[in-house]
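chain below, 88 aa
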Amino acid sequence: MSKVAAVLKVMPDSPDIDLDGLEADLSESLPDGAEINGTDTEEVAFGLTALLTTVIVPDDSGGTEAVEDAFGAVDDVESVSVEEVGRL
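prediction:
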């Protein structure tokens, strides 16, 4: 079974959000079969920092939609967008 790597940009709803705590919450929200392979940050504007989270999901699981939905349901997340996708 092949896997897909995707970089998801997670925007917190405030610049005051603890990014380490948010990263832990994202990790806990992952659907079965998905795993976080790394996280980086990106300064956006006005003190707001986005998390760039690399997620590995099985290719047969319908892509990144389940992960996007799970991340979007986490408290303090304003939005989730797919930045990059590629097969492993």
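The domain at 3-87 is CATH 3.30.70.60 (Alpha-Beta Plaits). The radius of gyration is 12 Å.
thats it, cya
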